[in-house]
Amino acid sequence: MNIHSDYKLATFAGGCFWCMVPPFENLDGVLDIKSGYIGGNTQNPTYREVSTGKTGHYEAIQITYDPEKVTYVELLNIFWRQIDPTDASGQFADEGSQYQTAIFYHDEEQRVLAEESKEQLQQEGIFEDLIVTKILPATEFYPAEEYHQQYHLKNPEHYQMYKIGSGRAGFLKKIWGNIPIKENYDKPEKEILKSKLTPMQYTVTQENGTEPPFNNEYWDYKKEGIYVDIVSGEPLFSSKDKFDSGSGWPSFSKPLVNENIKAHLDKSHGMIRSEVRSKHGDSHLGHVFDDGPEPTGLRYCINSAALRFIPVKDLEKEGYGEYLDLFK
């Protein structure tokens, strides 16, 4: 396949390819996703042939992406969240070599990043059993029949029934439901951040700055949704815990994900305060005080410039679907 010289390919096998397309399709920088077959010894295989498990092919997806907008590490992080990497026999209700999981690398850099990502996932202990997902060199990729392309859009009811009935949906919710979505974040270099952030966003998040009160984006914002780190995208706060503190800055009684917030003693400006930063992006967010409402008694006083708001209607497509239950 010939692609633009600035674009790259990423190829993942995660069981039934119907379920592997949706998690990537709305990601900024993903230009195209094809369902297909890879790794076998038959040219131009059909679905019927691959489904027998005799051709050696894996069901897989091949992503064309712009590395200036989305990194290979980000794609890997999403891939791991769609599969059971400890299952050597297939995936969920589908058994056979054609449904096994694998990462097919297209160059040495991808191979190294895939190996590191796999090792890190194992060390994190999210899965007690050994991770058996293979890391293999990419071979000829054969697009599947048109019927299988974007199947979730052509047959949404059957797709949802399959995803639930196969056990995939329940497994992923059980494993990943309470774990931050972007925990393996690689912070960009300063010059890249300067090009992507506004001057105020950069000053606040990277230089511990403070925006003016009552003159910032979210101090009196009342829509329902979640607030994520403007730099890393990790979930930080929910509108359910937002309150009017009268301070002129967004205020929250508690974090959405406790593990994504870290506190440090701050003695700047002749005061003793508790600074709060995002764990993975290491962005300066603001400060936490003990004059908030019950039941926590805390007031997380946060700079709007450190946040990005995700409305409820966009949670699923932006990859934060696990937080939808908060607003039902």
Question: Descriptors for this entry?
Answer:
single chain, Metal Binding Protein, Guanine Nucleotide Exchange Factor, Chain A, 2 domains, 6-stranded antiparallel sheet
Written account of the structure:
- This protein has 328 residues and is an alpha+beta fold.
- The protein folds into two domains: 8-176, Peptide Methionine Sulfoxide Reductase, Chain A, CATH 3.30.1060; 190-327, Metal Binding Protein, Guanine Nucleotide Exchange Factor, Chain A (Beta Complex), CATH 2.170.150.20.
- The chain is 22% helix and 24% strand.
- It contains nine helices and 17 strands.
- It has helices at residues 22-25, 47-50, 72-80, 108-124, 151-154, 156-165, 168-176, 190-196, 199-207, and strands at 8-14, 30-38, 58-65, 90-91, 94-95, 101-105, 134-137, 141-143, 225-229, 235-238, 242-243, 251-252, 261-266, 273-278, 284-289, 299-302, 307-311.
- It has a six-stranded mixed β-sheet, covered by helices on one side. A six-stranded antiparallel β-sheet has the order 11-12-16-15-14-13. A three-stranded antiparallel β-sheet has the order 10-9-17, with no helix packed on it.
- A hairpin with a 7-residue loop joins strand 11 (242-243) and strand 12.
- Helix 3 crosses helix 4 (108-124).
- The termini are far apart.
- Mean pLDDT is 90; it is low at 180-184.
